[in-house]
Structures are given as structure tokens and as C-alpha cells.
Amino acid sequence: MLKIYNTLSNTKEEFKSINSGKVSMYTCGPTVYDYIHIGNLRSYITADLLNRWLTRLGYEVRSIKNITDVGHLTNDDLFQGDSGEDKMIKKAKKEKKTPLEIAKFYENAAKESEDAINIKTVSFMPRATEHVSYMIKMIEKIILNGFAYEKNGNVFFEVDKMKSYGVLSGNTLENLDIGSRLHIPHPDKKNQWDFALWLKAPKNHIMKWNSPWSLGYPGWHIECSAMSLEYLGNTIDIHTGGEDNIFPHHEAEIAQSECVTGEKFVNYWIHTRFLLVNGKKMSKSKGNFYTLSDIIKKGYAASDLRMLYLMSHYRSQMNFTFSSLTQAKKNKERLVNTIIRLKESVSNEVAVKLTFDKFKNDFVNAMNDDLNTPKAISVLLKLSTKINKTLDKYTISNSEEILCFLNNSIQKVLGIKIEVKSVIKIPEKVMKIFKKRQISRENKDFQLSDKLRYELKNLGYIVKDTPTGQKLTRI
Ligand code: AMP
Ligand code: ZN
User: Fold this and answer.
1) What is the DSSP letter of 247?
2) Where do the structural domains in the chain lie, given as residue ranges?
């Protein structure tokens, strides 16, 4: 039974889906005004991992991740989504392109990075600009239900009206008002903590749509609510994002959605803690961030980075350094080498059976315990040590079964792509001689057995006689 930490209750809860055997999941996707960085990827990997594990547990997962190509303003975090420039437009001006060109380019780049790091579980990625009419309809309902007001062509959500505001982040109006009032709120707002659902476009604003209130554009928060309701229904099982999304973005999503449907918006809120680089926060605006291609240019594989992500728990802060990436690469290679050894080992009559039920159980228990991937990986590494020690003396009779478990756990569940290139299937001719030699030794025909050893050597294989039988290795 999976237990997962829910930000809504601040506890680990047993996972129960709304519909038996099915899971609906929404992930806040990239704002496509720049390359996605390794911090973004960390959050997306959590969603991918959760999806893979739920699938392994037998669920059918429907997973939506949006593309934010409008409405994400430069100062939204502090200013409740109504200040600063639209990130897309700012970048379009800088690169002398249209916002659409910018969005297309960075959306493709984001998808390429996700593909390279084996994020394969998203069912559909809707674009915000293609869903503005859904957002307008939703805003109309919010106004109709008495939770938003219009002034001078701008529409704001009236936080005061939503009694449950703060349910996710703890930022109730009371708590917020005790805090500082650092900024000058939008002049059309009743309360500084109200947030924008629709903003009237300034004169030369490029991205704008007709609406009942003004020629304008939607706020960032409304995008996710509208697309989640549209594609997954009123109540969904899981919503994921990075920890910075908790407030104001996810708090706003809950308020907007629940005042329209009257139903609970999300059952489990899963948040990934931030990835820092050399102890510092990465920031796209400051430009101190790494992309996946920066990592690859330095000689690492995307799967090394994936291994590194999984070596820390998604709910702990992760500090990226190249020395930790090198360690992750080594751990991955240890697992790959064990797989190679297992594949290349040849069974003989005195092969031993390696019992590994405990490892299997420990792996499952670790994953069921709030996706404890550091523990799950340490289980695989311990199993690898046990396999190697065994292979030093014997061959393993149930190697196929172990290989199946390792491949499933590493590639399917953890999503770490590995290439087991150096494995060459032992040719039948070699196997025949190997078996013939075994019989010759049993018959104590040492002359023949020496001759066969020589034949094997000429074919590129060394045969050793050990107390438990002969062992074959490639030269
Ligand atoms: P953005 O494109 O900035 O909206 O971010 C897309 C997703 O990546 C959001 O869920 C963010 O919370 C997440 N994210 C951004 N920076 C980081 C980081 N340094 N570590 C982990 N997740 C992040
Ligand atoms: Zn979102």
C-alpha cells in the first residue's frame, strides 16, 4: 500500500484513488520563455516517478501537464499575479521574435529534455493559449458565484469571500495581513491579497483576447484550474509541482476551482523541494542555472542526472554539485556492471540459487514509503554487492529472474535508462566446447579437458576450474 505525503494535511497518507484502479494527475508544467533547467526537471521527475510507481501498482494513470505560454508575469510570486511584464512577451522583445515563436521553440526544447531524461508518462500537454475560452467561462462562473469582481476591465478573485483560503499553505488572510505590505497593490484591487483572474491589456501588449471585461489576458493561476477541470474533472487524485507553487499558485487554484464546483479540487498535493546549485537558488532571471544539455556537454549522460535526483528524496532539498553527479554516475555503473556480469556468467551444474526475496520486499517497501528512492537505490546496490560476491565463486542458477527484477526496478520503475552494450551472447560453439569439457573432467579425461581449454582460449574465453566447477569468462 502506497503512503504519500500530502501537503494539504502535512502528513503521510495512505493513497486511495477516487475511481478504483484509475488515477488522475495534474502537473504544473513549464513556462516556455526559456530553456527548462535541472530544477524544473527535478519536479517533473517526481511526477514521472509517481506515475511509474502507480502504474507498477496496477493503476491506470491519466496525467496532464500544461504548457504555460501566456499570463505568467515576472513578479507573480510576491504580487499575486498582477505585476510585472508577461514573461513570454519580455523574452519575445529581447529576442526580436513573436511570443508564439518563443513559445514553440522553448516548448520543443523542454520536450526534448524530458524525453532525454526518460520522462515518458505524461498523457497530454495542453497549451494555455489554446484554452483561453475555457478560462473566460470559468471566470464568468466565479463572478456569478460572487467570488470575483471586475473593475476597469480587470477581474480579481476576492480572497476574503473564500473562507477556506489558506487551507494548503497556511497563508490565511489573517496570517498574510500580519506579514509585511511590501508592495503597492494594483489600484483596482479591493484587498492587496486578491489575485488577478483577467487583466486588461496595455496598449501595445501583444497577446490579448476578447472577453466580457476587456481586450486582455488571463492570470496565470486560472490556467491550471481551467485545464485541470476540463481534462480531469472536478476532483482529481493528485496535483504536483515544486514547493514554490504552494503559494500563491496552488492556493489560488484551490480557491478558484472549489468556488466554481463546490467540490474538493485535489485529494493529494505532492510538492518537490527545490534543487539548489552549489548551495544557491537557481534563477532563470539571474541566468545561474544549468540545463540538461550543459550537463551532457560536460560528459555525463542524462541517466546519470536521473540517478542523482533519485539518490535524494523528493521532499528533501537537493544540492547539485558535479562531485555528487560523479558519484551518481559511479553508482549507476556499478548496477550496470553487475547486470553485465550476470548476463555473461554461464551456468554450470554447481550453480547456486541466490535468494533475493528480502531485497525485492525492501525495494517495494521503500517505494511505498512516500517514494523513498534513496532507500530503494541502496537496496539495489546491496543486492549488486551480493551478486558480485556470489559470482566470484559460483554461477547463479536463477540469474534470469534476478536480471528481470533489476531491469524492471532500474529501468521501468526508476526510469534510469541503461545500456548494457558490452554484453555478447556466448556463441553456441563455445557453449558446446564448455559443456564437453565439463563431461571430460567428470570422466577424468584431463588430456581432453586441456585440449578443450586451449580451444576455448583460441575462441576468446578463459575457463577456470574452481572447487564448485568450471567458470567461463571472456578474455
Ligand atoms: P516554472 O517554469 O518556473 O513555472 O517552473 C515549472 C515547475 O518547476 C514548477 O512546478 C516549479 O515549482 C518547478 N521548479 C522551478 N524551479 C525549481 C527548482 N529549483 N527545484 C525544483 N523545482 C523547481
Ligand atoms: Zn499550475
Assistant:
1) I
2) 3-272, 321-413, 428-474
The secondary structure of 15-62, three-state, reads CCCCCCCEEEEEECCCECCCCCCHHHHHHHHHHHHHHHHHHHCCCEEE
> Ligand 2 centroid to 263 CA: how many Å?
19
Question: For residue 248, is the peptide bond before it cis, meaning its omega torsion is within 30 degrees of 0?
Answer: yes
| Separation CA 370–CA 363 (nearest Å) | 12
3-state SS, residue 238: strand
Q: 315-371: per-residue pLDDT in tens?
A: 999 999 999 999 999 999 999 999 999 988 866 556 899 999 999 999 999 999 999
Spatial CA neighbour of 229 closest among 260, 251, 208 = 260
> What is the CA(50)–ligand 2 centre distance, in A?
18
Which ligand ends up closest to the CA of 253? 2
Bridge partners of 238?
25, 268
Q: In angstroms, how far is the first alpha carbon of the chain from the final one?
A: 47
Rounded Cα distance between 233 and 6, Å, is 20
Indicate the SS3 state at residue 396: strand
Give percent above pLDDT 90 in the chain: 72
- 83-92: Cβ within 8 A, 24+ apart: 83/183, 83/186, 86/205, 86/207, 86/217, 87/31, 87/33, 88/31, 88/32, 88/33, 88/207, 89/205, 89/206, 89/207, 90/33, 91/33, 91/34, 92/206
CATH of 3-272, one of 1.10.10.10, 3.40.50.300, 3.80.30.20, 3.40.50.620: 3.40.50.620
| Ligand number nearest to the C-alpha of 242 | 1
Could you tell me the sign of the dihedral formed by the alpha carbons of 202, 155, 75, 95, in that order? negative
- Our mutation pick for probing the ligand 1 site, out of 28, 31, 40, 249, counting the most ligand atoms within 8 A of Cβ, is 40
CA distance 400 to 255: 52
Atom of ligand 1 nearest to the CA of 72: 4
Q: Ligand 1, atom 14: nearest CA belongs to which residue? A: 40
* Same fold yes or no, 3-272 and 321-413: no
- CATH topology (fold) of 321-413: Four Helix Bundle (Hemerythrin (Met), subunit A) (1.20.120)
Q: What is the pLDDT of residues 432-474, one digit of tens each?
A: 898 899 899 889 999 999 999 999 999 888 888 877 678 777 7
**How many whole angstroms separate alpha carbon 375 and alpha carbon 105?**
38
Dihedral angle of Cα 55, 372, 120, 76, to the nearest 10 degrees: 120
